[in-house]
Structure formats: C-alpha cells, structure tokens
Amino acid sequence: MASRMKDIVNHRLRGVSTKYLQNYSNWFALIEVTKFVANKNVHIRQRMEQNRKAWGTYTNIENYYRNL
Fold first, then answer.
1. pLDDT per residue over 2-49, tens digit each?
2. For residue 5, what are the contacts with CB-CB under 8 A and spacing of at least 6?
C-alpha cells in the first residue's frame, strides 16, 4: 500500500509537499476505495454527501494551516 501511495504522489501528483500530505492520503484512500467499484462517479458523490462540511474544510485549509 505504501508503494502504491508513493507511486501516485510521485507520478500522478508530481511531487510531495508535506503541507498537503493529509490531502494526498485522502486522495489515495478515495482511489483505493473506488478501485473495484463499477460506477465510480456515483460512489464518490455518495461519499461526498456523507460529510456536508468537507468542501468548506477543503476550501479553508489554508486558514487552518495559518492558524496552526
């Protein structure tokens, strides 16, 4: 699993910034969860609807880091 994540970060995302490491791991987890799902778009939408605050958290990530 670690080598697959490393491959995604280095090749698909083209590098690492430790500031966004949590986002990279979330993206990797989503890819892993949807690997064997027939209709990926529906599955991703359902997962996004489970957490209504996800978009607000994502768009305010810079403020969280600034306050940290």
1. 888 788 777 777 777 777 888 888 878 888 888 888 888 888 788 777
2. 24, 25, 28
